[in-house]
Design brief:
Strand order of the largest sheet: 1-2
Organism: Citrus clementina
Protein name: F-box domain-containing protein
Distance between the termini: 117 Å
Number of strands: 2
InterPro entries: F-box-like_dom_sf, F-box_dom
CATH architecture of the largest domain: Up-down Bundle
Order of helices and strands: HHHHHHHHHEE
Structural class: mainly alpha
């Protein structure tokens, strides 16, 4: 009987050893899989990093300066960090100059000292979308259908003139019927 018990013990021991080996292999395999998943996640994180963090503020500023105003405005919405870069006066001052180039009228509010250039640009865009007020259409004989088109000339020194013989706006001295109030930004 002892021999039989010994054989059973040996057999049980072999079975236990086999089970332990299998469990050990499973643990190793799980560990390798965890490490692979971790590496994959790290690789994905490297690939999906914020370009602002990867390239830095200066490079992103250079890139944004080459974009159109709408694209720069959209980049304001990405994150707080992007808003800080995309709202930079160095970007928007160039955009304002581009917008104002050749304009006869620049809103007074847009020229206020200390106003951020993004705000100045926004005010200029909003101001440019105004429609001609009715009093101006009533003043202009072209709109009334009684005369040819009126011409106004806005000079770089801030003065405004009209065609010779134009009596409607009060710009010509003499027979003034309705003077046009001209506001000048200071």
């Amino acid at each position: 009987m002892e021999l039989q018990e010994m054989e059973e013990k040996l057999q049980n021991r072999d079975v236990l050893l086999e089970v332990k080996k299998k469990n050990k292999r499973k643990r190793r395999k799980k560990k390798r899989n965890r490490e692979k998943r971790k590496e994959k996640i790290e690789e994905e994180e490297d690939l999906s990093q914020d370009p602002l963090e990867v390239f830095g503020r200066d490079i992103i500023l250079m890139i944004l300066k080459n974009l159109d105003a709408r694209s720069v405005a959209l980049s304001l919405l990405v994150s707080r960090a992007w808003h800080g870069v995309a709202s930079s006066d160095s970007i928007w001052s160039a955009k304002c100059e581009e917008l104002w180039l050749g304009k006869a009228h620049i809103p007074c509010l847009a020229l206020v000292q200390g106003l951020p250039k993004l705000a100045a640009y926004s005010l200029s865009i909003m101001d440019g979308k105004r429609v001609v007020p009715e009093y101006w259409r009533n003043l202009d004989p072209y709109w009334k259908g009684t005369s040819p088109l009126m011409h106004r000339y806005f000079h770089t020194d801030g003065s405004q003139t009209a065609d010779p013989g134009d009596k409607e706006t009060g710009l010509e001295l003499g027979n003034v019927q309705r003077p046009l109030l001209l506001l000048q930004c200071s």
